[in-house]
Amino acid sequence: MYILFFLISFGASIIGAICGIGGGIIIKPVMDAFDVLDVSIINFLSGCTVLSMTTYSVLKSLVAKDSSINMKLGTPLAIGAAIGGLFGKELFSYVASLFETPNTAGAVQAFILLIITLGTLIYTIKKDSIHTHKVTNLIACLLIGAILGCFSSFLGIGGGPINLVVLYFFFTMGTKEAAQNSLYIILFSQGASIIRSLFTTDLSQIKIFLLVGMIICGILGGIFGRKINKKINEHTVDKLFIGLMIVIIFINMYNMYHFLSI
């Protein structure tokens, strides 16, 4: 099972680095589907993997001076996302406390993620015909970032497709530019979320070997994903992203059924 989780983390991180979705939107629902760990533990493992991948990808692009990150817009978005990420964790804890078992909270996560993924898929297909905006207001950026961070942290996905749609619509970014800025935002939101989890989540169920292995796979995935991203065009990235969204929709439909039937 460990080997399988390592492969999932590695593959998800490659796709995450290419598309700018972090990888959590793949890791989280796929690990949920195996139903071998508590939902909160999967959230933490997914978050650590995403954090390792985004840290490598962002730092490498900055060092190599080939970064497309718009610091003027990206930094307030990232700071807002970090604050929203903390609130999202609190929100998940509250929602989980409303149910007798964590499986029901997992079903709620799967349902919301299903709706968001479906909306993202529709937007991505139609985005060439949708009028976009160029938001520059600092307060607006902070608020948008906070909403992104809250959703990503609550769902345990790191950010993913929500970030890309927001960057497309509110900031008129191209696919590859949005991907790099999305990873920058995820780095902040996931970092804040992980720090909070260290103090509030019972991590005794986590095997160190599994945690370290997934983190290493996240970094390796970031290395390979970054190389692939440089070799393909934006149209190919869009097609990969659309295919991924379709797969994630079906996985979340299964997870909803699975969690509610337990």
From TrEMBL:
Pfam families: TauE
Domain of life: Bacteria
Keyword line: Cell membrane, Membrane, Transmembrane, Transmembrane helix
TM regions (residue ranges): 5-27, 39-59, 107-125, 137-170, 182-199, 208-228, 240-260
InterPro entries referenced in this protein's UniProt entry, alphabetically: TM_pro_TauE-like (IPR002781), TSUP/Inactive_protease-like (IPR051598)
Entry annotated with the keyword Amino-acid biosynthesis: no
GO CC terms of this entry: plasma membrane
Main location: membrane
Membrane-topology annotation of the record: Multi-pass membrane protein
Coiled coil: none
Compartments where found: Cell membrane; Membrane
PANTHER family xref list: MEMBRANE TRANSPORTER PROTEIN MJ0441-RELATED (PTHR43701), MEMBRANE TRANSPORTER PROTEIN YJNA-RELATED (PTHR43701:SF2)
Sequence similarity: Belongs to the 4-toluene sulfonate uptake permease (TSUP) (TC 2.A.102) family.
Stated name of the protein: Probable membrane transporter protein
Lineage of the species this protein comes from: Bacteria, Bacillati, Bacillota, Erysipelotrichia, Erysipelotrichales
